Every structure is written in C-alpha cells, then in structure tokens.
Amino acid sequence: MDKVFILDSSKVTASLIQRHLQQAGFVCDIAFSYEDAERLIAEKNYFVGLSSLVLEGVPSGKGLDLLIKNNIPAIAVTSNLDEDVLNDISQKDIVDYVLKKSEHIDYIVRIVKRVSKNRGLKVMVVDDSRAVRSWLSNILGHQGLTVLQAADGAEAAKVFYSNPDIKLVLTDYAMPKMDGLQLTAHLRTIRPMDELSIIVLSSDSKSRTAPLFLKTGANDFIHKSARIEEILCRVNSNLETLELIAESRDRANKDFLTGLWNRRYFFEHSEPLYAKYAGLGRGISVALMDIDHFKKVNDTYGHDAGDEVLKRFATLLADYIGERGLVARFGGEEFTVVFETVSSEDLKSVLEGFRELIESVSVEFEGDVISLTVSIGATSDMGESLTGMITRADEMLYEAKARGRNRVLFAE
Q1: Are strands 362-365 and 368-371 parallel, antiparallel or unpaired?
Q2: How far is Cα 231 from Cα 274, in angstroms, rounded to an integer?
Q3: Cα angle at 109 between 104 and 113, to 5 degrees?
Q4: Which has the minimum average pLDDT: 147-151, 228-232, 240-244?
Q5: Mean pLDDT confidence for 2-25
Q6: Exposed/middle/buried for 323, CB within 10 Å: 0-12, 13-18, 19+?
Q7: Contact 77, 95 (CB under 8 A)
Q8: Is the domain of 239 the same as that of 281?
Q9: Of 106, 110, 152, 352, whose CB has the highest number of CB atoms within 10 Å?
C-alpha cells in the first residue's frame, strides 16, 4: 500500500499531521531528521510527502528538495509565510504549501486526498503556445494528474475522442482552427457540465468574454495573470465538484448494501437499450436470479450473516459478468442481468457457469460456513417490451425454484 511521508523535526507537529491523516484512512511514516528521511525514502514508496521548510542541521527547504529529487509529490509545511518564504517556495516544483497551524490541519487532509484521487485522472491543456502548455502541464503534473496536450481546439477534439475519460479541460480562448469558445461548445455536445469540467484561462480582458464562455458551457474562467495558487485552487475545486456529483449520483443509482446498480437505474439504462436493439433488429437477453433458501440463512444465522451472503453473492456476480452485461439488485435476494454482448446461443453456458460457481463457494461468518446455490430464469425473446422480457424470465425463475432450485431455465 502506498503511504504518506511526513518530515518534520517537531514531534508534536508531525504526530498531529499523522493522526489526522490516519483518521482519514491513510498510512503514514514519520522522519524527524533529514538522515532518517533519506533512509525511509530509499526503502519505501510514497505517493505524497509533507516536509517542514526548516529542519535541524540542514539548509531551509532541503527536505522538499529530497522529496522532489525522488519524484514524490511534495507539500511544504511552514510556520512563516512572508514574501521571501513565498518566493522561495514558488521556485520549487511542489504540490502546495500549508501553514503549520492547527486550524490548517483540515486543509492538509484535503490536499493529500486530492493527490491520492488525482492518480490516473486525466486532464487536458489546450493552448497554441508551446511554452504555456508546458508550464501548465508541469504544474498539473506535480498534482499527480495525467496531463494531455493540444495546440488548438481541433487537435483537442481529436485527443478527447481518443480519451473520453478526460475529466477536466483547461483551454485558451484565441487559437487557430478552432478557438476556445468553439471547443467549449463542441465538448458540451459530448459531455455535460456534471461529467466534464471546462476551465478557460485567457488573457482576453473584454468584459463580455467571461460571461460568454460561462453561457456557452464553461465551468470557470481565469485570467492568465492569475497566480499559480489560484489556478490550482480552481482546478481542485472543479475536480472535487465533479466527484461530489458522481458520489451523489451513485447514492441515487446504486444499492447501498451491495454496491450494485439498483432497480431504478436498471430500468433507466435498459429501456433505451431495448429500444435501440429492437430498432436495429438485434437482440438482448435478460436473466433473473434468486439466492436459494435465503430466508433460511437469515432465520438460522441472523440478518448480519444474510447481509454478508448478499454482498459476497453480488461481488461474485459482478466479477463473473464483467463487461458482458449490466448487473443490478432488484430487491431482497433477487438480482438481474441484462446482456448486450452475449448471444442467445452462449447465454445458457454463461449462466450455467455462474450457477456452478455459486454452488462451489461458501460464505464464512463468525465461525459458521454457509453454502449457497442459485436459481436462474432467462430469456432472449425480445417480444414487445423490456417488461415482457422480465416477466418471461421471472416465470422461468419461478419454475426453476418449483423444480427443486439450483438450476437455470430459459424461455426460448
């Protein structure tokens, strides 16, 4: 597991930072001297490091330099932030700085979380100036972000199509081929504001420029004269907003216990899917399944054991189906899958394989071993509606249970 590294000669400060980061779920190592820091960094991997500017026995800022030299994203911790100190910090390739005060401890936790979440997260910088692109990419790269570049809007559109998982675009206004305003309008036809953040960074000082971009779909507008701090704060704020929206969406669309999609999301996703394939003259398949004798599990071992069984079953189902279909919990011990890429000919073997998997596993709970089986009903008959497919699959599920359970039945 990657860790947080803390370097500070003050045991009180280092322990305070460590305690709050551990409460946030991070594992931390502490070094109280430069020599201890060199040894730990040589032995272990750290995804981010915090260093006091002042350490005993070494010049100011050497701890930060050690982190930077070892490619560890560095956060400066300082008790003094006068203009000279700020100028010195700004010359170093660091993530951020924070004052060594107890009221700033929450910000330390926040920025460490940000660096952790940034790993593997893609952003794109769009500017016709190679120097500006490199400058911005360097700043964002130190935050742990994966930075893609484009020299104009047209190139940016191509990069975006190849990388649809880009979360944030930082773009200039005046560019050849396709300017920032046109790019913003184009990207908004592909991704809404709650899935892609667009920040405009422009030297244009006309009073109508910022409102024009915001009305076109930009999330934010920053003048190029802004300090690096402001740019980073805006970037972090926009990324955090996207994450909060995504978390809220998950709470609405996912089952709390198992983490699978819920009944509501299943229909919101599957109804358009059914209409699409019906219009193309192609088919989808639907399967409904019940954990056999689940009431007996609750009655015998308790509801906590039942919850463990549901979570284990859901994990096995999601892992087994993978990208082949959408898995949802319909309610209670009932689950459903809509298959988009599995042919009707292969459906039987796929579902039979899952039935055999469940039959082979067991769930351990407080010393008890709980065996499982599953009954499954399925259909590839599109009929007249998705509801009709679900009804046919449910009928097959009912018959599978009536025939003794632990079996798969199909409506042809």
Answers
A1: antiparallel
A2: 45
A3: 145
A4: 228-232
A5: 92
A6: exposed
A7: no
A8: no
A9: 152
Q: Which two tokens stand for residue 88?
A: 């010195």
CA distance 274 to 264: 15
Q: Looking at residue 60, what is its pLDDT?
A: 86
Average pLDDT over the chain reads: 91
Q: What is the DSSP string of 218-237?
A: -SEEEETTS-HHHHHHHHHH
- Coil, strand or helix at 367: coil
**Residue 42, in any domain of the structure:** yes
Specify the CATH number for the domain of residue 333. Answer: 3.30.70.270
Contact 322, 353 (CB under 8 A): no
* Mean pLDDT across 227-255: 91
Average pLDDT value for residue range 325-337: 93
Question: What tokens does 212 get?
Answer: 């024009």
Query: Considering only CA atoms, which of 272, 408, 277, 283 is closest in space to residue 351?
Result: 408
pTM as predicted: 0.74
Residue 165: left (phi > 0), alpha (psi -120 to 50), or beta? alpha
309 lies in the same domain as 405:
yes
The 10s digit of each residue's pLDDT in 357-374 is 999 999 999 888 999 999
